[in-house]
From TrEMBL:
Keywords: Coiled coil. It comes from the Eukaryota. This is Uncharacterized protein. Residues 1-137 form a coiled coil.
């Protein structure tokens, strides 16, 4: 009977050990399930954040593209303005040179007039000399 009691006690101890191990395993399973749920939640949150960031990146890329086009357009307009300034400057220079040419024409006409005057004066002097000569004779 003692042997039976010992066997029963040993069986009871083993059953208690197995039951304790089972309880520990169940507790570990619950802990692991909580960890898994937490990790799944984190993954879900990260996926949402990633989607929002991708959307933001796309919006920023659109803004950058629009600003780049605006800058290109501004540069094009600036170059056109520079061209306009060059054209205006050239037109002003042409007007100035035309005025200078007109002045030179007037001066040359006056100089030609002076030459004609000198020629006329020399002819008058010759005429006067010839009259003086004729009157003396």
């Amino acid at each position: 009977m003692r042997e039976m009691t010992k066997l029963i006690e040993l069986g009871e101890q083993k059953r208690e050990e197995v039951e304790n191990e089972r309880k520990e395993a169940v507790d570990k399973i619950w802990v692991l399930r909580d960890i898994i749920r937490d990790l799944e939640y984190r993954v879900e949150v990260k996926a949402e954040v990633e989607a929002e960031l991708k959307k933001l990146v796309a919006e920023l890329e659109d803004v950058i593209e629009q600003q780049t086009r605006a800058i290109d357009e501004s540069n094009r307009q600036l170059e056109e303005c520079k061209g306009d300034v060059d054209v205006r400057t050239l037109k002003e220079r042409i007007v100035y040179l035309e005025n200078e040419a007109q002045k030179l024409r007037l001066n040359s006409e006056l100089a030609g007039g002076e030459g004609a005057l000198k020629e006329l004066q020399s002819q008058l002097n010759l005429f006067e000399s010839s009259i003086d000569k004729k009157t003396k004779d």
